[in-house]
Amino acid sequence: MPASKKDIRNKKNKALEAAGLRAPLTQSGVPVKPPKQAYVCTVCKISLTMPQQIKVHTEAKHSGKTVQECFPGAPTA
Ligand SMILES: [Zn+2]
Fold first, then answer.
1. Higher confidence at residue 75 or residue 40?
2. Per-residue confidence (pLDDT) for residue 46, from 0 to 100
3. What is the pTM of this model?
4. CA–CA–CA angle 34, 71, 47 (5° rounding)
5. How far is the CA of 29 from the centre of ligand 1 (A)?
6. Are 67 and 76 a contacting pair, CB within 8 Å?
7. Residue 18 has what pLDDT?
8. Which InterPro entries match (predicted)?
9. 7 CA from centroid of ligand 1 (Å)
10. Ligand 1 midpoint to CA 33 (Å)
């Protein structure tokens, strides 16, 4: 009997699991995305994740400050 698609997929998943590379799945079988790194503004304590938001926030709310002053360690995009 030829291997079914399911068998092939299971075999692949087993190999990935053995290598520690398989993404954890939710109960519905959807891969869990790693949580996004959030950066907190040192001035107003708002929490942002997108480099673009961080840049816009700094320019709009704290003109005169740099992105690194408001969000130390944040990527500057
Ligand atoms: Zn701020």
1. 40
2. 97
3. 0.57
4. 55
5. 38
6. yes
7. 82
8. ZNF706/At2g23090_sf, Znf_C2H2_type
9. 52
10. 27
In the reported structure, the alpha carbon of residue 25 is separated from the centroid of ligand 1 by a whole-number distance in angstroms of 35
Tell me the CA–centroid distance for residue 39 and ligand 1, in Å. 10
Neighbours of ion ligand 1 (CB under 5 A): 41, 43-44, 61
> Measuring CA to CA, which residue among 61, 21, 18 is closest to residue 53?
61
* Domain residue spans of the chain: 1-31, 35-77
Q: Is the distance from CB of 70 to CB of 43 less than 8 angstroms? A: yes
- Residue 41 CA to ligand 1 center (angstroms) comes to 5
Q: Structure tokens of 61?
A: 């709310």
pLDDT tens for residues 3-44? 899 999 889 888 877 887 777 788 888 888 777 889 999 999
